[in-house]
Amino acid sequence: MNHPLSQIIAKFSQTFSEKPALVRAPGRVNLIGEHTDYNNGFVLPASINKYIYLAVSKRDDNKIHLISVDLNDEYISDTDSYIQHEKHWADYILGVINQFQKNNYSISGFNCVFSGDIPLGAGLSSSAALECGIAFSLNYLFGNNIDKIDMVKLSQKAENEYVGVKSGIMDQFASMMGKKEQVIKLDCQSLEYEYNPLRMDGIEIVLFNSNVKHSLVTSEYNTRRQQCETGVKMLQEKYPQVSSLRDATIAMIDEIIKPKDEIIYRRCKYVVEENTRLLEGCEDLRKGDVIAFGKKMFATHEGLSKDYEVSCEELDFLIECVKNNPDVLGARMMGGGFGGCTINLVKKNSIEKLVNTISEKYKAAMNKDITTYIAQIEDGVSLITI
Ligand code: ADP
Ligand code: MG
To answer: Does the pTM of the predicted model rise above 0.90?
Structure first.
């Protein structure tokens, strides 16, 4: 299989006569801080060496000509008559165009050929990579000089408002703002962020894709958001200063929610604990204590599985397989849940053995194959010069 970059260059030159600008937009991992972004909490993502590559050029007219190499599909419309589909791939692009127009940024016709190696729907945020890649490309082509943070926000809005997925800001932030070998500690309330070097000598980030995506993912995601909001409303009756679970404490939810609603209690408890775990985990990383950090990842999985209830049989199995393995320092399900990948911190020299063992066990238990990726932390969206 050809590299996606060679594929888009070849396809572009077959289809269009001009020379394109080339952009790559990465997917992301999140070390800890899951389901905290829409609760105004903290997350710890990083952009990785899996990308959507885009070849883009300006046109002289108002036509939008989009080609998805991976889906072998094209979409042609123009800047004032494109229409919304049902989560069709073009929506992720049209949503960004729509945001450019709403913000009165300069935009006219353009060509775009794209392809990537981020698995779709596996929790590595191929959707955010596509949105951020397009936002960056259009900003570049039409010389808008948009601040990167504004591109993050408009890409998130494209997904929220146009595609119709109410995701938090983490994915777009990580894809746009990522930095080589650094994790981003992001406060999703203030959008304050800091880069922390990830010092993990002899340890790699290994992703196991369960290759399942249960249909529950969107509906349960929305339900979790609502349950968190309900929890906040219950707390506000006594503590009006609580505007999101970010402001809540375990003592508050023990006092107010525990006696009234067991499910809301577990959801809120998980979120509050996860924010604490993240803050303490950042301290672990600063001290170079990967063992302590890894233990927190296992605790996160436990919380996501038992209290937040967004895991599934396959993800729980993959975590159970590595839990008592001394070569795996930490592991948890990553992303929205109900499928997708687990993220594992694994001693470098034992990766091969681990992959073989897990593949066999997973096949035997679930009759499915896993796909393995070793994630390296790379820069966020950028122009490619070749
Ligand atoms: P995730 O962001 O976790 O990968 P989503 O369901 O949010 O999963 O987004 C996946 C969608 O993004 C795909 O269904 C498709 O519409 C679009 N997409 C992502 N990558 C590509 C690609 N390489 N080619 C075409 N469409 C893509
Ligand atoms: Mg997505």
So the answer is: yes
